[in-house]
Every structure is written in structure tokens, then in C-alpha cells.
Design goal:
two-stranded antiparallel ribbon, 15 helices, extended, alpha/beta, 442 residues
Length: 442
């Protein structure tokens, strides 16, 4: 944008030149505003933009402090292990003067953990019996529950590849490079992808069972985010319960996805934002996200807008305070009615201000859904659980950019859902992967 600090320079320009410069400046300002809205808008949580966050906390009555390790952090000290492996290191010469005349005056004891310098995969020739049943004449392969019937790669190798791809977030090319450098195992990126696809196919039954569990859940947190597939804009939907996470990748952001996953008559509790597709869940009890609402109201810069935001923030604080202690069902219903009535009055008052109109309409369209967390115990007032669940997919999107095939979306949603669910259930991911692969491939 052009900046003119010298009045003399301005005086030399004609009226038409000044108008042209002003127009160019306004166009550039509008362009910068639209670019900024990509990073700072009501639908983007502050955690997504670390560069826009302050270095110190601004919470009232809390002393500013640098971010560091959380309370009761375990630290880096490791407990020593019982082992018969010993190594004695003897002195040979003085490192200062190179003299070989010295005496031992003590010992320093330490324990180290090490891996073998050369870890190489073992090739095994397998002879598998082909059998035929004498009763029904069915032909079948002999199984040992540890050797896959198809493919050249064993279960442990497949687990390692999945860990590198999903836990470490490695791209195919770098995963192949790591396997070659660390294990002398030369694989093409296409072979790595084939391993992942085979693992996803082995997980199809458990993924289908996970869909059924999500449909039967009484409380769900749902969110969606965009993801490019073959150059087109698709959507990743996250359905999270207390113990499960289901990811589905679809070309639609409409209510047809909700109908596919939950069915027309889903009657549970859903925490979500105000995206209109969720209105399809007419039989469900909805809790709209206060984090989205407060981010919208915080953008109001007028005096009335700031007062409006302050009153909404006070209501949110009151929700947290009310839910901090046990309450009876009768108390919750009474408080729900009181809070909803107060919100109606606030919306009615601030709707007279033009700059607040968009936010008041945003609230008014879903007036009965802002205090479900008051009426029903255990419901969160924000959709942070779903946003946290979908954050891993956002990181993957930043790394890979897009899916190059529809098949890739099926592979990702299956394995990412199962891995996240096992993690939420505090299960051993490695053991669960080995169990699933052995049961379905061996």
C-alpha cells in the first residue's frame, strides 16, 4: 500500500491521480483483510494460530509466566532396570598429558539403554499346507495366526509402517527412506502404501462396528473440516463419544452425512456449532458451541458490541461455575429456564444495534440449544472435544496437502479412527494392531 508522508508530494498530484491512488489503497486493504480472515475468524480456534497468541497469559489475577512443563511433569529421569549385562571400561592414558602412569581411585556407575547397531529383517521361507476337508470337501490354507496368507511382509513390519505413517506422521517417501536407513529394508513408496491399504482392509470389520457404536452413543461431539481430494474440496467429519472416535471423509458437508452415520431418528445429545446441517437432527438434543459464539462476539469493535460480548462471556462463566458442583435435575431445569430467559433479554436489547445484528441472529436461530449443558449433566458447553479430535487430521492436511485418490480417503479414515479410539480407551496401540492384523490376515 502506498504511503504519502510529504504534503508537498500530495499537492503536486491531480484530483484524478489522488482518486486512483485511494482506490488502489482500498483494494489492497480489502485484499489484506480477506487474507487475514483465513487465519483469524470465529470458526478458527486460537490454538490454530500460535503466531497470533500472546507469549504470556492474560487471565486476570494470574501472574504472567512462561509456558513450561505441566504440573507434576515426570521429567527425564528413568528408573534403572534389572540386567546381567555389564561392561567395564578401563583407563588407558591421561587425556591431558597422554601419560600412561595413573591409578584407579574410584568408579562411576551408570546404566545405558542401547539398540543393536544393525537391525535387519529376517527372511523366512514359508511352506503352507493346502488342505481339503473330508466332510465338506472345502479346500483351505493352513493358518498359524502369525503369518499373513498374502503378501511378503509380516505383522511386525506392518505395525512398524503404520506407526511411522500415522503416529509419526511420515509421508510415504520418507517412511521408505527411514526403513532403508534403519533396517536395511529397501521398499518403494508404493509398497509402503500397499502395506497400509492391506492393514486398512483388515480393519474394515472393526471400523463398521465402530460406526454402530457411534450411532448408539447417547452423547456425541461432532465437527467437520475441509480436505482436498483429487483437487476438489471434500470434508472430514469427526464423531466423538467418551471412548470412541469415528472419522468419515465425504464430498459433502450437508445433512446427508449425518443421515448416513446417525440415521434419521437419532435421539441422543449432540454438541456442535451452528452449521445449518445439524438442524437435520430434529430428534436429537443439541448443545451449540459457546467457543464459536464468543469468538464471533469478540470481533464486535463498537462500544455496544464490547458490552454485548462482556455479557455473553459472563453467562459462559456462570455456566462453568454452576457445573462445578453437583446439582439435582430439578435445580438444572430451573437454572436452564433462568439462563435462557436472560439470554433472550440480552439478545432483544442488543438486536437494536446494527453492528450486533449478525450475532443476535446467530443466537436467536438456536435459542433453545445454548444451555443444554445446564439442563443435562455431563454435557460440555463447547465443542472443544470434537475440535481436539479433528486436530490430528488438520496436521496431516498440512503435511500431505491432499488425497490423491478416493481409495486413500477410505484407508485414512479406517486406520485413523481405530488408532484414535484405542488411544482414547487407553489400550496398547501396538498390541491392538497386532491382534487385528493377525486375526484378519493370518
Amino acid at each position: 500500500m502506498k504511503a504519502y508522508c510529504d504534503k508537498q508530494e500530495l499537492k503536486k498530484k491531480s484530483k484524478d491521480e489522488l482518486v486512483d491512488d485511494l482506490y488502489d489503497s482500498l483494494v489492497e486493504i480489502d485484499k489484506l483483510k480477506r487474507e487475514l480472515r483465513k487465519y483469524k475468524n470465529p470458526n478458527t480456534p486460537p490454538s490454530a494460530n500460535q503466531h497470533l497468541k500472546p507469549a504470556f497469559s492474560k487471565i486476570i489475577d494470574v501472574k504472567p509466566h512462561k509456558r513450561g512443563a505441566p504440573l507434576n511433569h515426570e521429567g527425564t529421569t528413568r528408573a534403572k532396570k534389572e540386567t546381567t549385562n555389564c561392561r567395564h571400561i578401563s583407563g588407558t592414558e591421561c587425556p591431558g598429558c597422554r601419560s600412561k602412569s595413573f591409578e584407579v581411585i574410584g568408579q562411576k556407575l551408570q546404566q545405558q539403554e542401547e539398540i543393536p547397531p544393525d537391525i535387519q529383517p529376517a527372511a523366512v521361507n514359508i511352506a503352507r499346507d493346502i488342505c481339503q476337508c473330508n466332510a465338506c470337501h472345502l479346500k483351505f490354507f493352513a493358518r498359524d495366526n502369525q503369518t499373513p496368507i498374502q503378501g511378503r511382509f509380516g505383522i511386525n513390519l506392518m505395525v512398524l509402517v503404520i506407526f511411522l505413517k500415522f503416529i509419526v506422521r511420515g509421508v510415504l517417501r520418507k517412511t521408505a527412506s527411514f526403513l532403508e536407513a534403519s533396517f536395511a529394508l529397501k521398499l518403494a513408496p508404493a509398497s509402503v502404501q500397499a502395506i497400509i491399504e492391506r492393514a486398512a482392509k483388515a480393519g474394515e470389520a472393526e471400523y463398521t462396528a465402530l460406526k454402530a457404536k457411534i450411532r448408539a452413543a447417547k452423547l456425541l461431539y461432532i465437527d467437520e473440516t475441509s480436505f482436498r481430494v483429487l483437487g476438489l474440496n471434500w470434508w472430514v467429519w469427526a464423531f466423538r463419544s467418551d471412548t470412541d472416535l469415528l472419522l468419515v471423509i465425504r464430498s459433502s458437508r450437508g445433512n446427508n452425512v449425518l443421515e448416513e452415520i446417525l440415521g434419521k431418528g437419532y435421539a441422543g445429545i449432540v454438541v456442535c456449532d451452528c452449521w445449518r446441517a445439524y438442524d437435520f437432527l430434529s430428534s436429537a438434543i443439541l448443545q451449540r458451541c459457546w467457543a464459536h459464539l464468543l469468538r464471533k462476539s469478540k470481533e464486535l469493535n463498537s462500544v455496544a458490541g464490547r458490552h454485548f460480548h462482556k455479557k455473553l462471556a459472563a453467562l459462559f462463566d456462570e455456566i462453568a461455575k454452576f457445573n462445578s458442583t453437583e446439582k439435582s435435575g430439578k435445580q438444572r431445569l430451573r437454572k436452564y429456564g433462568q439462563m435462557t430467559k436472560r439470554l433472550r433479554r440480552i439478545v432483544a436489547y442488543y438486536s437494536r444495534y446494527e453492528e450486533c445484528e449478525a450475532v443476535t441472529k446467530y443466537i436467536g436461530f438456536h435459542m433453545e440449544s445454548w444451555f443444554t449443558c445446564i439442563k443435562i449433566a455431563g454435557v460440555q458447553p463447547t465443542n472443544n472435544y470434537a475440535e481436539q479430535a479433528i486436530r490430528e487430521t488438520v496436521l496431516v492436511r498440512k503435511i500431505i496437502g491432499a488425497f490423491r485418490s478416493v481409495k486413500g480417503t477410505k484407508t485414512y479414515e479406517t486406520l485413523a479412527s481405530l488408532l484414535a479410539t484405542w488411544q482414547y480407551q487407553k489400550l496398547d496401540i501396538k498390541k491392538e494392531l497386532q491382534r487385528m492384523l493377525s486375526a484378519n490376515l493370518c
